[in-house]
Amino acid sequence: MKKIIPYRTTKRAMMSIDNGGRFFNLLTRANDGNISASELGKVAGVLGDKQKMVLFLEMSLSKLSDSSVSSIRSALSSELKQAYRRYQPRHYSPTEANKQGVRSQSAIVTGVPKFVKANSDFTGFIMIPMVANGITTMMMIPMIDHYDVYEIRDEETDEDFLIAHARSAKNLPQVHCCFGGILKELKSNNKNDSKKRVYLNTIYYSVVDK
């Protein structure tokens, strides 16, 4: 998971994002007023994944005024403008994410994370692809065996929402944060549990100013 420090000025945002792309992007130029996918991908730390690029853009511009955000969006290439319309993330409280979140949707959820320990009573499962004898099958494994899992508490409703990210030696700070990622389906090994639940596969986070 990558920490984002939101831009505070339009100038700083444009200087960072309008960067000319990587060395092999020969057709892009830095500081030309046009933001290409290669340039946004470079600063977002991804290659070719426009859903993640749009998520990064939304979170990194969160401290700017509406007019500043509009001016930066207007500099996006037509390809990125189309991607933004498709992947613009929804902003949720933990309670809203539980009730309104849809699988594969980009989302930003705000709250204080609490680490879920491996020896807890947590029983969520995820599906991962497994290859055997050249055949790929989906296998259900305990989510806590594959990810670092956190509960995000909604202070108004006292309801928790789950976020997860690739295992790391460093725990998230227990302060108000915005977590950006993609909603995934959370499975249950109880066949009588028909309720569809989602969790946030977290890609970026930023600390909320108080």
Rg, Cα atoms, Å = 19 Å
Order of helices and strands: EHHHHHEHEEEEEEE
Task: Give the beta-strand count.
Answer: 9
Q: What is the terminal-to-terminal distance?
A: 22 Å
CATH class of the largest domain: Mainly Beta
CATH fold-type name of the largest domain: OB fold (Dihydrolipoamide Acetyltransferase, E2P)
**Fourth-level CATH superfamily of the largest domain:** Nucleic acid-binding proteins
The tally of helices reads 6
Which strand order do you get reading across the main beta sheet? 3-6-7-9-8
Which structural category do the helix and sheet elements fall into? alpha/beta
Molecular shape:
globular
- Count of all domains: 2
Q: Bin the strand percentage.
A: 25-35%
Unreliable stretches (pLDDT < 50, length at least 5) are: none
Main beta sheet: 5 strands, mixed, barrel
| Proper CATH architecture of the largest domain | Beta Barrel
Helix content: 25-40%
Q: Which secondary structure elements does this structure contain, and how are they paired or packed?
A:
Blueprint: E1 2-3, H1 10-17, H2 37-44, H3 50-60, H4 66-74, H5 78-87, E2 90-92, H6 94-100, E3 106-115, E4 125-132, E5 135-142, E6 147-153, E7 160-166, E8 177-186, E9 197-207
Parallel strand pairs: 1-9, 2-3, 7-9
Antiparallel strand pairs: 3-6, 3-8, 4-5, 6-7, 8-9
